[in-house]
UniProtKB/TrEMBL annotation:
Keywords: Cell inner membrane, Cell membrane, Membrane, NAD, NADP, Translocase, Transmembrane, Transmembrane helix. Residues 6-449 form the NADP transhydrogenase beta-like domain. The keyword Transmembrane helix applies. Belongs to the PNT beta subunit family. One of its GO terms (cellular component) is plasma membrane. This is NAD(P) transhydrogenase subunit beta. It catalyses: NAD(+) + NADPH + H(+)(in) = NADH + NADP(+) + H(+)(out). It is found in: Cell inner membrane. Its main location: membrane. It comes from Deinococcus ficus.
Length: 455
């Protein structure tokens, strides 16, 4: 029987790796998700064959309940709410890893220095991922709107982390006691809260990716504790890919991961910095329609505002209308646009935008000086020119989309506020920029109506 389990886990590992490879491209991403899903189902089924396994009824009940809830949520959740769903799943994975460690310690099944160390590491990282993901969900859902900080935040975080690690070392050195275990888990959960609470929306894609990596590592460590190859493989694959993705996201923002955690971008950070001078020029839907209808090349830059408004279908309808009139329309995606990695790509794919019309920063930046119009829909920091020259700005050095180099720039946003990150955008005050105010859904619908009237 054991050889069947071992071979099955080997097949599962291959499916996970092939699935992850396929997810690296939008063209093959759906196939990759299916392969990884088949691998997970196979890993779950073959685990029932493990010698000495008990509580089949409870496990089946848990699978039915958990699978049922996930099925319903997967069907009902809006694409715009996907970052919140990812945060919830990260938290559940981390919480499950921490719960495994707590149960194994309570049963006295954790023996040996190596296994105990891995169990402690998994419990610590899993607890941080669990509570940190809950805070991330509250922020993304709009239930926690302000960055929450304590006096001497970094010193407080450092002391809290040090005490938690010392408690973990005490568990490894002298064995777990109920009081030490309770303190250890409690402080680890608090650490996750205080690490994520001060982080603003501008850094949220990196945080989501980092919490995903934490969850994978925690699951991998607990796989060693349970001697379960499927958990080890899945955890390592998720943890390694999450770490690489976090590094790529941080590089796209020109920020160190430690900078995201210890010096997050918030509105307060920008409050002491003098903003751009000048006035914003407003444009109506008719003028915006005329500018794009009679242009030769239009580059659309979607951002979180488009996601909030759920305007991706209207944007694609407008783009097709312009193309029918002979306008070359392209979409420019910044790596950290939105609130999770790949957020804009997912939304545009849902609307039916072909992959060959979507370009990332390195591919599209050289084309902005050749564009007649750059249409910014709900994007902010990723097109802010201060990132190039203002050393006092929190986003200085971050690679941006060169939308300001287009002949004309139209910015659609709901109002004159500084946006989710709290940083004023110099682009909005430039001579070649016009502001199209209103919800993206209604504003683009009005532009479509006027493009049709122009013939």
């Amino acid at each position: 029987m054991q050889w069947i389990i071992d071979i099955s886990y080997f097949v599962v590992a291959a499916l996970f790796i092939l699935g992850l490879k396929a997810m690296s491209s939008p063209v093959t991403a759906r196939k990759g998700i299916n392969w990884a899903g088949v691998g997970m189902v196979l890993a779950t089924l073959v685990t029932f064959l493990t010698p000495g396994m008990r509580n089949y009824g409870l496990m089946l009940l848990a699978i039915i309940l958990g699978g049922g809830v996930a099925w319903v949520l997967g069907k009902r959740v809006k694409m715009t709410d996907m970052p919140q769903m990812v945060a919830v799943y990260n938290g559940m994975g981390g919480g499950a890893a921490a719960a495994i460690a707590a149960l194994e310690f309570a049963r006295g099944e954790v023996t040996g220095a190596v296994v105990t160390t891995l169990a402690v590491l998994g419990a610590l990282i899993g607890s941080v991922a669990f509570s940190g993901s809950i805070v991330a969900f509250l922020k993304l859902q709009g239930l926690m709107k302000k960055a929450w900080k304590v006096p001497g935040q970094n010193l407080f975080n450092g002391l809290l982390a040090l005490i938690t690690v010392l408690l973990g070392a005490l568990i490894i050195a002298s064995g777990p006691s109920t009081l030490i275990l309770l303190l250890f888990f409690l402080l680890a959960l608090v650490l996750g809260v205080v690490l994520v609470a001060p982080i603003g929306g501008a850094d949220m894609p990196v945080v989501i990716s980092l919490l995903n990596a934490f969850t994978g590592l925690a699951v991998g460590f607990e796989g060693y504790v349970l001697y379960n190859p499927a958990l080890i493989i899945a955890g390592i694959v998720v943890g390694a890919s999450g770490i690489l993705l976090t590094q790529l996201m941080a590089k796209a923002m020109n920020r160190a991961i430690t900078g995201v955690i210890f010096t997050p971008i918030t509105g307060e950070a920008q409050a002491s910095v003098s903003g751009p001078q000048g006035t914003m020029k407003e444009v109506g839907a008719m003028d915006a329609a005329a500018m794009m209808r009679f242009a030769q090349k239009v580059i659309i830059v979607p951002g979180y505002g488009m996601a909030v408004a759920g305007a991706q279908h209207k944007v694609w309808e407008m783009a097709k209308l312009l193309e029918e009139q002979g306008v070359d329309v392209r979409f420019a995606i910044h790596p950290v646009a939105g609130r999770m990695p790949g957020h804009m790509n997912v939304l545009l794919a849902e609307a039916g935008v072909p992959y060959d019309k979507i370009f990332d920063l390195d591919e599209i930046n050289s084309e902005f000086p050749l564009a007649d119009v750059a249409l910014i829909i709900g994007a902010n920091d990723v097109v802010n020119p201060v990132a190039r020259h203002d050393r006092s700005s929190p986003i200085y050095g971050m690679p941006i989309l060169d939308a300001d180099k287009a002949a004309q720039v139209i910015v659609n946003k709901r109002g004159k506020g500084a946006g989710y990150s709290g940083i004023e955008n110099e682009l909005f005050f430039q001579d070649n920029t016009s502001m199209l105010y209103g919800s993206a859904q209604q504003a683009i619908a009005d532009v479509i109506t006027n493009i049709k009237s122009l013939g």
